[in-house]
Amino acid sequence: MASFTLSAFLCVAVLSSITLGAKPDFPSAPCPKGWVHNNKRCYLYFPEKRSWIDAEMHCVSFGGNLASERTADEHSFLKKLHMPDGDKLAFWIGLSDVHKKGTWIWSDGTKMDFKKWNSGEPKSSGGNEDCVLSNSDGTDWQVSDCAKSYPYICSLRWR
């Protein structure tokens, strides 16, 4: 029986979601019911906590990925979307370096032109801190262990 490391599994999951590019067949409404439209994308906040890969795979099941923060406006938008319950916890976004330490890519294949790292980030502790959290409490991105559980936001490319 084959055995895979977490990094190998995450890499396969991320690359398969990039290459599949599946987009479900939704009605022509701005977004599927319950999703919020912003800048040609639809977003949905999930308050239940999951590991990064479980959150990513949940997003992939909708035909999307964990949200990318491509601009300062998108960064602010996602923080506001996360805040309705007053939850100040950090939340997963789709940025990781699971495939190669120090090479950060978005799980949806978006180019990383925008960066919003907290001071001292990204850490290179050499441990399992390969996935990125966006913080809603006024701070920015930080790396974390991918196996930890946090809320998350899914994103779908839209018209």
TrEMBL record:
<dbReference type="InterPro" id="IPR050111">
    <property type="entry name" value="C-type_lectin/snaclec_domain"/>
</dbReference>
<feature type="domain" description="C-type lectin">
    <location>
        <begin position="38"/>
        <end position="155"/>
    </location>
</feature>
<dbReference type="Pfam" id="PF00059">
    <property type="entry name" value="Lectin_C"/>
</dbReference>
<dbReference type="InterPro" id="IPR016187">
    <property type="entry name" value="CTDL_fold"/>
</dbReference>
<keyword id="KW-0732">Signal</keyword>
<dbReference type="InterPro" id="IPR016186">
    <property type="entry name" value="C-type_lectin-like/link_sf"/>
</dbReference>
<protein>
    <recommendedName>
        <fullName>C-type lectin domain-containing protein</fullName>
    </recommendedName>
</protein>
<feature type="signal peptide">
    <location>
        <begin position="1"/>
        <end position="21"/>
    </location>
</feature>
<dbReference type="InterPro" id="IPR001304">
    <property type="entry name" value="C-type_lectin-like"/>
</dbReference>
